[in-house]
Every structure is written in structure tokens, then in C-alpha cells.
Design goal:
It contains 13 helices and 30 strands. It has a seven-stranded antiparallel beta sheet, with no helix packed on it. Strands 1, 2, 5, 6 and 7 form a five-stranded mixed beta sheet that branches. Strands 11, 12, 13 and 14 form a four-stranded mixed beta sheet that branches.
């Protein structure tokens, strides 16, 4: 009986001893064929990086009688005992077989045995295992799903014992997938292997050595390398690959990526097509990456077409149009028009043509607000610096939306959201959610409603409706600071302008982060990794604030020795910390002693005296000088200082100094 699949692989197992060979195992039996695979399930020894494939559904072919007992060409000796007469078919012997690849396997044979769960009979112990076709099919699926194989077939032969009982001989024919031992990149002067591998790590695409060949991953690597060359101006680059067989083991290959950079694409000119109101000069200034060549291009690299960054440039051009009132403007796909190649064929000069649809320039009509219940319309209107008759500007709308978010966030509306609904009067009303907006609710109302002018000062008009979703008000549940291994919680908490149990305030949170950063005790808090605001589980309208901090070393020890004409030989030792014992206090001590001079000093500053924002500090010192043939001097004194906050991040300090000199 045979199961057939696209390729062939062979492995052997047996219930009796067989001649030892590279990659062969004791025989256990025989089965059908198929292809492919990906690793799933329990871990086993030496399992490489895999990409699973869908397992084919095997069909058991017609079985054939065997004249002699053999698995993978190795004879199976007669059994020590016969199965009971009249027994159903039993598993006589089975085994994996690697005939196509010379009888040896790259993966340890014990790994395949792990996936073959059909077991042979043990005649010497009187144990006879009934043949189960479903168990054999399950073996096929498990082996295929490992991803180790390019081809798999299971061959089942019948062997009739002398008492008429049928014994099954099961052979697992396997051919393994090729394995990569060496990866290199040839043909590129712009990219070395280190840069390519760094980029692949960033993209989380890595071809590991000793991994199976994965065509999809190889194609992805080729695409990434082409993108890297495209960023350097080589849009015509081609990347191919070759797999070369290697000695040293079965199915080992050398993967080589062949890179043909082609000519470098340089832009001699950038032209906008379709623009009438705004000239090319102003549109070119909005583009940050794709600019035409100029006389300093050999230094700046300007003039190289960067396809990956064109979308950003197009967005800048589009924003410029919309800030000028062209709310319907569009920027199309770029077109590179070949002009000529250089004489050495290393440079291709092109013209970058960018299609533009400007549309009409709009003036602002009515500005209305819907959905606001907490903040009055007058207060919201003051946030948006636009009035009827002004040219439409997307920039003004965005600034107003940002201010509205700040306003609602400062009173706890964490889920607040708003968006502008634009209704050009020269266009029919849009239908949203089954309703037509804007417009009267009935034909009679439509007839009675005053007609709004479609044009204003010779320009079409757009009405703007700001639609608000205020959500509900949130309160602070907990504020935590994971990562403060040295600094005490109260030192951080006194900089926080949020109160547990109080209304959540986004602006106070931003201000608190600034205060913590200015301490200098931690690495800068920025982004979502260090700051998270999450809704409290099972807590209605409550938020948990987590500020993840990472301590910085604020301690400094210095020491040294030297010789000076005035001070003679001297040694110096000092210690200074800006976060003494994690309490946020500043402490320093300095000792300097020599044959002609001594200097001793100790200083301490408390930034929050009596848990109030009052700074107090004291500095004590003693200095002795003995300049031979000149004079001697001994000074003892100190400084006492106080500071008071006068505004954000600003304090007023006063000092009192006292010194006694002899």
C-alpha cells in the first residue's frame, strides 16, 4: 500500500536488529507518501527554525503482499513466535527510510521516532499490536507538519505468516528539506553584509544558519535589499538568489544573494502637473526628501529619488494646499520620466513628474458644534481661530481640536473625541448613518429654510460642524512608579500634580512628567513605554497611571594628587551625590591636603524642607594656606541658603555667609 506525495524521504524502524547504517534506525514497519511541512506540537531534539505548511490528506493505496519481510531494503528475520491463529492484521515491522538522500538524515533520527506513534509488535514477549490504518495516517500528518520534509510517503506491505495471519511492513519514505549552512550577499558596493543583516533584524526577518530553506522568507529578504538600494537611489536594482549544494552532510546548501545595483537614479528636475493656483516653486519647498539636484549635491546627496519617502512629501504638499483653502486637493502617484544615462551607465537622469488636482479654494461658512454638554459653545468657538469669510485652513482646525482635547482632558474626560464634518455648499448633502446631513428634515422645512449663499466673495463656501463625543469623566485610582530602586516613592510623588481619588487631568500629567524629568534622577520619560494610562479593571470611570522609571547614577567620586609651586605636594578626594540615600537631597564632601595648603568642605541641601517646596542648604568649610616667605592664612566659615518657588521651574534664592579669617 502507498501514499504518494510530490517528493520522497525514507526512514527505518524495526522490531529486530538490522545492519547499522548512516541515519538508519532499528526497523519497526512501513507506510504511504506526501510533501512538505512546518513544526507544530511538542519540542524534540534539534528542531530548527520552520515555516509550517498545510498537510496533504493521504489516501491508503491498495496493499501488496511481500514475498520476504524487509523494511527499507533491510531483511527482517523470522519472528521468535507466531501470532495467535485467526488474529487480525498485526504490525510486524516499521521504520524510517532516507533512500533519496543516500540513507542518512540531517535531523537526528530519534526526532522522527518521536512523531511516529505507531508501535511494532514484540514477538519475543508475546505482544502483538493490531494494525490501525488511522494511526498510520496520523503518523503521516505529524511527520508532515514538522516542516522538516520536502517529500513524504508511507508504504505498507503485507507479509503472511505461516499460520495465515497477515503482518504489516510499514516504511516511512522521507526526503528532508534543504538546510542553509552559509548565507552571503554578492555584487553590491553600496551595501555590505553587516548593514543588510542589521536591517533584517529590524524587520524581524532573519535567515538563521542551519535553518531549512524557506522560499517565502528568501523572497522577503530580496524585497528588503531592493528597498534598501531604492533608498540610495538604485530603483532599477535586481536581487536574485542561488542555492548551491555543499559537502559535509545531506541536503546542505550555500545561499547566495546576487545583487545587480544598476544605474543610480538622479533627479534633474521636479515638475508638478495640473497646478495652476500655486506654482512649482512653492510646492517644491514643501518636499523634504525628494528634491532636484543642485550644486552641492555631491555633499548633501540631494537629487536622489527616495520612493519610500515620497508619501511623506506628498502629504506635505497636500497639507500646504489644504491650509491655503484647497480642501479638495489631491496628489497623484509620481512618474519618473527617463531623460538620459551617463556615458559610464552608472547614473540615470530622470524627471520627477507629480500630478496634482487643486480643486476650488473654499471660504469658511457656518461653524457649529454638536454633542457638547459640558463646555459651552462660546468657549469652544474661542478655541478655533476661524470665522465666516476666512479662507479654509486645515491647520487652524487641527490647532483648535488640540486645544479642545486639552480643555476636556484637564477636567477628566479621558475618552473625549471630536472630528470636523465638512459640508461644501456647492455639493449635495452627504448621507451619514441613514440620515442626510446637513439639511432640513422635511420637504416643507426645505422650502421654508433660507437659502444659504453658495459663493462668498467669489469663492465657494464650506460649512464646518465639529462633532464631539465627550464620554464620561474619569478619576485617578492608583499612581505607581515601577523601577525606582533607589529613589523613594515620596520623592517622585511630590512632583506629581495628580491626586489619587481626584479628577484625572491630562495637562497635570504632562506637567508632572516634566517635573520628574528635570530632577535628573531617572532617564527621560517619554513615549508609551514609560507612561501608561489604563482603565481600572472592574472599576467604573477610574484610571491607573503607571510611570516606569529607570534610575541614573547621580553619585560622583573623584580623587587625585599633584604638585604646585604655591601649594606644594597635595592629594584630593571628594564625593558628591544629587540623590542622597534616595531622598532627593544633595550632599558633598571634599578633602584636599598638602604640604602648603589644606581645604576641607562639606555641603548639604534639602529641596523640600518640612515637606514644602522650600529649599534649604548649608555649606561649611575650612581652608589653611602656608605660602613660605609670603603669608599664612586660616579661614573657617559657612553659607546658609534658602529658596522659594516663584513660578514653574524657577526659584528665588537668598544666601547668608559667615567667615572668620586669621
Amino acid at each position: 500500500m502507498r501514499f504518494l506525495a510530490p517528493l520522497t524521504v525514507t526512514v527505518m524502524l524495526a522490531s529486530v536488529a538490522a545492519p547499522a547504517g548512516a541515519g538508519q534506525l532499528p526497523h519497526y514497519g512501513s507506510l504511504p507518501r506526501s510533501t512538505g511541512g512546518g513544526l507544530q506540537g511538542a519540542s524534540v531534539p534539534q528542531v530548527p527554525d520552520l515555516q509550517p505548511q498545510a498537510a496533504p490528506v493521504p489516501q491508503l493505496p491498495a496493499q501488496k503482499p511481500a514475498t520476504t519481510a524487509a523494511v527499507c531494503g533491510t531483511p527482517v528475520p523470522p519472528p521468535a513466535a507466531l501470532p495467535p491463529g485467526g488474529s487480525p492484521p498485526v504490525v510486524y515491522a516499521l521504520g524510517p527510510c532516507f533512500t533519496v538522500q543516500g540513507g542518512s538524515s540531517a535531523v537526528e533520527p530519534a526526532t522522527y521516532l518521536f512523531y511516529i506513534q505507531t508501535r511494532p509488535s514484540r514477538p519475543s514477549q508475546g505482544v502483538w499490536v493490531s494494525y490501525d490504518e488511522k494511526s498510520v495516517l496520523d503518523d503521516f500528518t505529524r511527520l508532515w507538519n514538522t516542516g522538516f520534509l520536502d517529500d513524504l510517503s508511507i508504504e505498507v506491505d503485507d507479509y503472511v505468516f505461516s499460520n495465515g495471519v497477515v503482518g504489516k511492513l510499514i516504511t516511512y519514505h522521507m526526503e528532508e528539506r534543504e538546510r542553509i549552512k552559509i548565507v552571503d550577499y554578492e555584487g553590491s558596493k553600496q551595501l555590505d553584509q553587516t548593514k543588510i543583516e542589521e536591517k533584517l533584524r529590524e524587520e524581524e526577518v532573519r535567515i538563521a544558519l542551519d535553518s531549512f530553506v524557506d522560499p517565502a522568507k528568501i523572497r522577503r529578504v530580496q524585497d528588503i535589499v531592493k528597498e534598501m538600494l531604492g533608498e540610495k537611489g538604485f530603483q532599477a536594482a535586481t536581487v536574485t538568489h542561488a542555492l548551491t549544494p555543499m559537502s559535509g552532510g545531506p541536503k546542505l546548501v550555500h545561499l547566495t544573494f546576487h545583487i545587480d545595483e544598476g544605474p543610480k537614479v538622479r533627479m534633474r528636475d521636479v515638475e508638478f502637473v495640473g497646478n495652476q493656483a500655486i506654482g512649482d516653486f512653492w510646492l517644491k519647498r514643501q518636499m523634504k526628501s525628494n528634491k532636484e539636484q543642485w550644486f552641492l549635491s555631491f555633499i548633501t546627496g540631494r537629487g536622489t529619488f527616495q520612493e519610500a519617502k515620497f508619501e511623506e512629501d506628498a502629504d506635505n504638499v497636500l497639507s500646504y494646499y489644504r491650509n491655503k483653502g484647497y480642501m479638495a486637493a489631491r496628489v497623484g502617484e509620481p512618474d519618473l520620466k527617463d531623460l538620459e544615462d551617463s556615458s559610464d551607465r552608472r547614473t540615470r537622469w530622470v524627471q520627477l513628474r507629480i500630478p496634482v488636482q487643486e480643486g476650488a479654494r473654499y471660504r469658511v461658512g457656518d461653524v457649529t458644534f454638536e454633542g457638547n454638554t459640558i463646555v459651552k459653545v462660546e468657549a469652544l468657538r474661542s478655541l478655533f481661530k476661524m470665522k465666516p469669510g476666512d479662507w479654509y485652513s486645515e491647520k487652524d482646525i487641527r490647532k483648535g481640536m488640540e486645544k479642545a482635547r486639552e480643555l476636556y482632558g484637564s477636567v477628566g474626560y479621558f475618552d473625549f473625541n471630536l472630528y470636523p464634518d465638512l459640508a461644501p455648499r456647492d455639493m449635495p448633502p452627504r448621507e451619514t448613518g441613514g440620515e442626510t446631513s446637513p439639511g432640513p428634515s422635511s420637504d416643507q422645512e426645505a422650502a421654508d429654510a433660507p437659502k444659504k449663499p453658495v459663493m462668498m466673495n467669489g469663492a465657494p463656501v464650506v460649512d464646518i460642524t465639529m462633532r464631539l463625543d465627550e464620554g464620561k469623566q474619569y478619576f485617578v485610582n492608583r499612581i505607581t512608579f515601577p523601577g525606582n530602586t533607589t529613589t523613594r516613592d515620596n520623592v517622585i510623588r511630590r512632583e506629581i500634580r495628580l491626586v489619587e481619588g481626584g479628577v484625572f487631568n491630562t495637562e497635570a500629567l504632562k506637567y508632572s512628567i516634566k517635573r520628574i524629568n528635570q530632577l535628573g534622577y531617572f532617564k527621560t520619560i517619554e513615549g508609551d513605554k514609560e507612561l501608561t494610562v489604563e482603565k481600572t479593571p472592574n472599576g467604573d470611570n477610574k484610571l491607573d497611571v503607571t510611570l516606569k522609571v529607570e534610575e541614573q547614577n547621580r553619585n560622583q567620586i573623584t580623587f587625585g594628587a599633584g604638585v604646585s609651586q604655591w601649594e606644594g605636594f597635595f592629594g584630593q578626594l571628594s564625593f558628591q551625590t544629587a540623590n542622597f540615600l534616595g531622598r532627593g537631597e544633595t550632599f558633598s564632601v571634599m578633602l584636599q591636603a598638602g604640604s602648603l595648603a589644606q581645604n576641607y568642605q562639606v555641603a548639604f541641601t534639602e529641596p523640600f524642607l518640612f515637606d514644602r517646596a522650600i529649599t534649604a542648604g548649608i555649606d561649611l568649610y575650612r581652608r589653611d594656606l602656608n605660602w613660605i616667605n609670603y603669608f599664612t592664612q586660616s579661614s573657617v566659615g559657612g553659607n546658609l541658603g534658602f529658596g522659594f518657588p516663584v513660578r514653574d521651574f524657577a526659584r528665588l534664592f537668598g544666601n547668608y555667609s559667615l567667615e572668620q579669617t586669621r
